[in-house]
Design brief:
With 144 residues, this protein is an alpha+beta fold. Helix content is 48%, strand content 21%. It is found in: Membrane.
């Protein structure tokens, strides 16, 4: 153990903390790994064991205290730009073939022709009517 410098052990610890980061996708392990790298720098600059441990603890706790709430806030936010099927919900479409509850009708939605059925199975929409897209079920627009 005396043959290998302390900074090498800190780097081994940082790599060891990086493995569960990749396996579990828990960012806290990455923050602990950065703390270990900071302790390796302190060891490389000649800091004692107490200083190395303090640097590890301070950097790790600071990262967890600052970065984790920011990451959690970003994780809970909905995307500002709806894409794919989500972008089509709430749009208006033009009936090209009679739409009823059977799903045999067609609408022009977003420049494309979609199969469509009415939300209320008893309601029918005739050619040329504007309808609102409520949902998308597979390749079928649910309209009302």
């Amino acid at each position: 153990m005396d043959d290998i410098n302390a900074w090498v052990w800190w780097l081994v610890g940082a790599a060891g903390l990086g493995i569960p980061l990749v396996v579990t996708a828990m960012p806290e392990f990455g923050m602990l790994s950065v703390g270990a790298v900071a302790a390796a720098v302190a060891a490389g600059l000649g800091g004692g064991v107490v200083l190395q441990v303090l640097v590890f603890v301070i950097v790790s706790v600071a990262l967890i205290a600052v970065v984790r709430p920011v990451a959690a806030r970003h994780r809970t936010q909905l995307p500002e730009l709806a894409t794919g099927i989500e972008a089509l919900k709430g749009k208006q479409a033009i009936v090209l073939e009679r739409v009823d509850g059977s799903g045999a009708g067609r609408v022009k939605l977003g420049g494309e022709i979609w199969s469509a059925r009415s939300l209320d199975g008893t309601q029918a929409y005739e050619v040329g009517q504007e309808v609102d897209v409520v949902d998308i079920d597979g390749a079928t627009a649910i309209v009302m």
